C-alpha cells in the first residue's frame, strides 16, 4: 500500500524540488552521486507504510548520524564504471579477447576510438574496484563488516573482491597500462562474470551515499529519529517540534489519540500558525520515510497518508473562485476520510474565501463532522474564534492558541502553544503601524 500525499500537500509543505533551495529535499540533498540523488528522490516520493521498515531505516540513518563518515568514492569514477556496465556485456573470455584484438587493430589502422574508450572504461572500473577493496579491508580490520550498517555494502563487495581472479588486478601498480590480454580478461570479468554483482554493488554504494548524507544532516541539525508503532496503536506524540528549516525555531509539543484527534488552533496573523502546521506535516512525512525529524521525541502509529490545505489556489481556467477551490479541497479530504483511511490532515484557515457568517457555520459543521473520525488526526486553524467557543462541547477537540503580546502598540509573538482559544486580533494595529492610512 502506498503512502498518500497528493500534489497540493507536497507543494504546501515544500517537500520536493531539487532546484528549490527551500525544499525539504534540498535540505537533505548532500549526496555525492547521481544515483544517490535518484535514490533520495525515490525515498521522498514513496514514504514507508510498515512500522518495521520505518524503524529499520531509521536505525541505519541514526548509525551514520552517530558515527561520522565521508563518502569513500569518487563520483566520476562511479559514473564511468556505471556507463561501462550499461554499454557492455560479455559471454566468454575468448570472445572478449577477439573483440579487444579487433578494436585495437581498428584503432591502429583507422584511428577508431573504440579501443581507447574501452581502456578508459576498464581503468575506471579497476579504480573503483581498488577503492572498494580499500574500504572492505578497513571494515574488516575494524570489525565493521558484520555488525553495523556497513555490512550490507560489504556483503555485496565481498564476492567480487575476493574472487580468485580479482587479486591479480587489485595488486597491479596504480595507473599501469593494461596489456591486450589483461584488458580482455578484465572485460570478461567486469562485463560478464561480475556484471550483476557489480550492479548490485553500485546500488549498495548509492544507498551508502544517501545514508552518509542524511546522517550528516541529522548530526549538524541536531535532528532525532521517530519510533513507529502499528496502525492499531492510533496515537501520535511529539516533543519540541520545530520547522526543519528554522535552526532557531521555537519548539512546541503536542499529540493526538483516539480520544483527542482534533487540534483547534487559533491566533492572530503572523503568530506562527501556518509554520507550526507545516512543521507538523513535514514531521509526519519524514517520520514515515524513516528520516531524521526536527523534534526531540516523536512516537507515532503508522498512517495511510497526509492531506493539507494551506495554499489552495483558485482556478481561472475552470472558473473556480478561491472559496469554491476550498470547498473542493474539503470534499477531497472528506472522501478520503469516509473510506476509513488513517490520515493526518491540516486545514489552515478553513473557508477564508467567503464571508464571516458562512465561514463560521461551515467551520463549525465541518470540524464537528471530522471530529467523529477518530482514526484520523486533524489540525484546524481559524481566525473565527467564536467557532471554537461553539465547539467546546465536542470532547475529542483540543483547543490551543499561539499568543500575541502587545508591547505598547507593537505586537510581539512568542510562537509558543498555549491551551485555550485566543481572541487576539491585531490586523488593524499592523496596518496602522505601517503608516498605510497616513499615506492615503
From TrEMBL:
Pfam families: MutS_III, MutS_V
Record GO terms (molecular function): ATP binding; ATP-dependent DNA damage sensor activity; mismatched DNA binding
InterPro entries found in the cross-reference section: DNA_mismatch_repair_MutS_C, DNA_mismatch_repair_MutS_core, DNA_mismatch_repair_MutS_sf, MutS, P-loop_NTPase
Any GO BP annotation: mismatch repair
This protein's record includes keyword Disulfide bond: no
GO CC annotation terms, alphabetical: cytosol
Record-annotated DNA mismatch repair proteins mutS family domain positions: 260-438
Keywords tagged on the record: ATP-binding, DNA-binding, Nucleotide-binding
Gene3D superfamilies: 1.10.1420.10, P-loop containing nucleotide triphosphate hydrolases
Name by which UniProt lists this protein: DNA mismatch repair proteins mutS family domain-containing protein
High-level lineage: Bacteria, Pseudomonadati, Bacteroidota, Chitinophagia, Chitinophagales
Amino acid at each position: 500500500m502506498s503512502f498518500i500525499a497528493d500534489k497540493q500537500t507536497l507543494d504546501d509543505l515544500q517537500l520536493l524540488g531539487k532546484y528549490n533551495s527551500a525544499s525539504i529535499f534540498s535540505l537533505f540533498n548532500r549526496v555525492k552521486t547521481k544515483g544517490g540523488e535518484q535514490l533520495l528522490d525515490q525515498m521522498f516520493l514513496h514514504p514507508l507504510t510498515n512500522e518495521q521498515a520505518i524503524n529499520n531505516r531509521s536505525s541505519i540513518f541514526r548509525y551514520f548520524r552517530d558515527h561520522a563518515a565521508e563518502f569513500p568514492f569518487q563520483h566520476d569514477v562511479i559514473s564511468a564504471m556505471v556507463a561501462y556496465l550499461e554499454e557492455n556485456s560479455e559471454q566468454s573470455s575468448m570472445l572478449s579477447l577477439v573483440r579487444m584484438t579487433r578494436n585495437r587493430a581498428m584503432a591502429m589502422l583507422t584511428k577508431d576510438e573504440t579501443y581507447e574508450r574501452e581502456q578508459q572504461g576498464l581503468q575506471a572500473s579497476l579504480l573503483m574496484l581498488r577503492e572498494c577493496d580499500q574500504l572492505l579491508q578497513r571494515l574488516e580490520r575494524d570489525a565493521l563488516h558484520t555488525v553495523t550498517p556497513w555490512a550490507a555494502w560489504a556483503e555485496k563487495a565481498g564476492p567480487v573482491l575476493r574472487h580468485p581472479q580479482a587479486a591479480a588486478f587489485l595488486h597491479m601498480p596504480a595507473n599501469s597500462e593494461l596489456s591486450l590480454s589483461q584488458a580482455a580478461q578484465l572485460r570478461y570479468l567486469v562485463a560478464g562474470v561480475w556484471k550483476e554483482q557489480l550492479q548490485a554493488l553500485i546500488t549498495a554504494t548509492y544507498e551508502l551515499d544517501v545514508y552518509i548524507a542524511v546522517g550528516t544532516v541529522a548530526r549538524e541539525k541536531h535532528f532525532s529519529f521517530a519510533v513507529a508503532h502499528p496502525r492499531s496503536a492510533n496515537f501520535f506524540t511529539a516533543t519540541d517540534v520545530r520547522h526543519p528549516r528554522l535552526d532557531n525555531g521555537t519548539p512546541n509539543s503536542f499529540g493526538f489519540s483516539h480520544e483527542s484527534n482534533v487540534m483547534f488552533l487559533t491566533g492572530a496573523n503572523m503568530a506562527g500558525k501556518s509554520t507550526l502546521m507545516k512543521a507538523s506535516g513535514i514531521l509526519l512525512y519524514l517520520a514515515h520515510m524513516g528520516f531524521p525529524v526536527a523534534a526531540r521525541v516523536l512516537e507515532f502509529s503508522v498512517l495511510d497518508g497526509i492531506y493539507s490545505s494551506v495554499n489552495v489556489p483558485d482556478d481561472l481556467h475552470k472558473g473556480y473562485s478561491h472559496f469554491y477551490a476550498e470547498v473542493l479541497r474539503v470534499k477531497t479530504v472528506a472522501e478520503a476520510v469516509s473510506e476509513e483511511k488513517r490520515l493526518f490532515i491540516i486545514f489552515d484557515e478553513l473557508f477564508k474565501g467567503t464571508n464571516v457568517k458562512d465561514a463560521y457555520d461551515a467551520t463549525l459543521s465541518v470540524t464537528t463532522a471530522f471530529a467523529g473520525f477518530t482514526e484520523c488526526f486533524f489540525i484546524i486553524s481559524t481566525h473565527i474564534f467564536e467557532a471554537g467557543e461553539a465547539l467546546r462541547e465536542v470532547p475529542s477537540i483540543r483547543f490551543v492558541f499561539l499568543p500575541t503580546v502587545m508591547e505598547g502598540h507593537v505586537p510581539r509573538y512568542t510562537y509558543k502553544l498555549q491551551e485555550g482559544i485566543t481572541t487576539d486580533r491585531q490586523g488593524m494595529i499592523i496596518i496602522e503601524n505601517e503608516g498605510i492610512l497616513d499615506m492615503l
